[in-house]
Design a protein that fits this description.
disordered C terminus, 10-stranded mixed β-sheet, alpha+beta, FAD/NAD(P)-binding domain, 486 residues
């Protein structure tokens, strides 16, 4: 018997929910699962515009599946002496691992096969990058979270770690690598589905095919959420005491329509990606790791090349990329007019400054857009010299809406992470930006609960403690067994 309070049915007005979640991705699913555990008597509704949840950025093939933890992502540590960002990401991903394990222990998360043990590596070439990686390793190894990180400049050792990458290379080429055995590959689409199942089991209502187009707050503080059912073409209206906008690329547009002053001047830059993929068992069996390397000189952080082992639906594949694409869509299943609907007088100068002051990004995007399949494959062969074109095919990954924000001296800047937006009264919140959001969703949603529901925290503490939702800095996540969350 579920303990959720049913929203009141009334012939005089729309039903009122305690919480309405807009968007059926990993963020809404995480928050919904938390609320189901913390406040099971609250009525919750999740509205997703597609016909199933987890089908946008959270879908397995719309992202690289890296459980971002700072062990291999060189763009989190451009200065090899500054481990702050890498250590922060490691700590936040540890929170995710503990949360998933806590739900599994409670029996709330039935399927734990979304996490697979997959070593995380860096491999770099040339004296400059070898010197960088060596210093990065020396900085990280002093932190408890990175104590198990290994380093080598021995080609034979590196060939054991990543044989595809080392085979066929000229002898004497400077090379270095780091390796962390406790890395992970995460199927965020599968995880999203499991979290939504947990919400539904607890009494939440999940309505797919429902696109939200309007948000308005009444004088009583309650929000009116309206839109249309994409299947029946009918309009719908519900009310909510609290709204979370986890709509990915559409989040900014909805927060703008909610007239939230906190997003004034904010804009988004849509960036898509492609990957080369192989499912050839003979190739896949020889590369069991996620291997990152340095971006080309002058290239933006989003261009870091990586050769990834993926585990999806019980099958293993390899991905290489990313290759940037451009579209004015803000979602993979969006419209070409999407980005124009976010333009406001308040963000035009911000967007222009962010774009034209970051010339390296413009050059990178132009070069990528003009790149042929042959040139893309040549990039793979620099990483994996013996790659056979017959084994690989291009796939499209998800569309990202990179956040552009006002800046006091540069007018506008392009940011690479995520930002949680909350209203002054705590009745609405939304998430903007991109990676590494999915990997750190529990920590982000814990921050949301702290900001928006401060009066409930003391009552929630026992359950939060049981779910291990008490972030600590520089804590190493446990080495996972295959198929377990931690």
């Amino acid at each position: 018997m579920n303990a959720h309070r049913e929203p009141p049915e009334s012939s005089t007005g729309p039903e009122i929910f305690d919480v309405v979640l807009i968007g059926g991705g990993i963020m809404s699913a995480t928050l919904g699962a938390m609320i189901a555990a913390l406040q099971p008597d609250w009525s919750v509704a999740l509205l997703e515009r597609l016909d199933r949840v987890g089908a946008e950025s959270s879908a397995a093939w719309n992202n690289a599946g890296t459980g971002h933890s700072g062990y291999c992502e060189l763009n989190y540590m451009p200065d090899p002496d500054d481990a702050g960002k890498a250590a922060e990401i490691a700590s936040l991903f540890a929170v995710s691992r503990r949360f998933w394990a806590g739900l599994a222990e409670r029996g709330t998360l039935a399927d734990t096969g979304f996490v697979t043990a997959t070593p995380h590596m860096d491999v770099v070439f040339g004296e400059r990058d070898v010197a960088y990686l060596r210093q990065r390793f020396e900085t990280l190894r002093a932190l408890p979270a990175f104590a198990e990180l290994r380093y080598s400049e021995d080609p034979e050792v590196i060939a054991e770690w990543a044989p595809l990458i080392m085979q066929g290379r000229a002898p004497g080429e400077p090379v270095a690598a780091t390796r962390f055995e406790g890395g992970t590959d995460v199927d965020f689409g599968s995880l999203t589905g499991s979290l939504v199942d947990a919400m539904t089991e607890a009494g939440a209502r999940v309505r797919t095919g429902h696109q939200v187009t309007r948000l308005r707050q009444g004088g009583d503080g309650v929000w009116t959420v309206s839109g249309h059912d994409r299947n029946t073409k009918r309009r719908f209206t519900i009310r909510a005491r609290f709204v979370f906008v986890g709509a990915g690329g559409y989040a900014l547009r909805l927060l703008q329509r909610a007239r939230l002053p906190e997003v004034r001047g904010y804009g988004v830059l849509p960036v898509g990606a492609q990957f080369l993929r192989t499912d050839n068992p003979a190739v896949v069996a020889r590369h069991q790791a996620k291997v990152y390397s340095q971006a080309a000189v002058g290239a933006p952080p989003m261009s870091v090349p990586h050769l990834d082992t993926r585990h999806v639906d019980g099958n293993s594949s390899l991905l290489f990329g990313p290759y940037a694409t451009f579209s004015t869509r803000l979602l993979t299943h969006g419209r070409l007019t999407d980005v124009f609907t976010t333009l406001r007088w308040s963000n035009l100068a911000v967007l222009a400054a962010a774009i034209f002051l970051d010339l390296s990004l413009i050059r990178y995007l132009i070069r990528e857009l003009l790149s042929t399949r042959r040139r893309k494959f040549a990039q793979l062969q620099r990483f994996y010299p013996h790659a056979n074109p017959a084994d690989w095919h291009l796939i499209r990954a998800g569309q990202r809406a990179q956040l552009v924000k006002p800046h006091p001296t540069r007018i506008g800047i392009l940011t690479m992470g995520t930002e949680l937006i909350t209203s002054t009264d705590g009745t609405i919140a939304g998430l903007l930006g991109a990676s590494p959001g999915a990997s750190t969703a529990p920590a982000i949603m814990l921050d949301l609960l702290t900001r928006c529901f401060p009066h409930h925290l003391s009552a929630w503490q026992p359950t939060l403690h049981h779910l291990a939702l008490t972030p600590t800095r520089q804590e190493a996540p446990p080495v996972p067994e295959p198929g377990t969350p931690g």
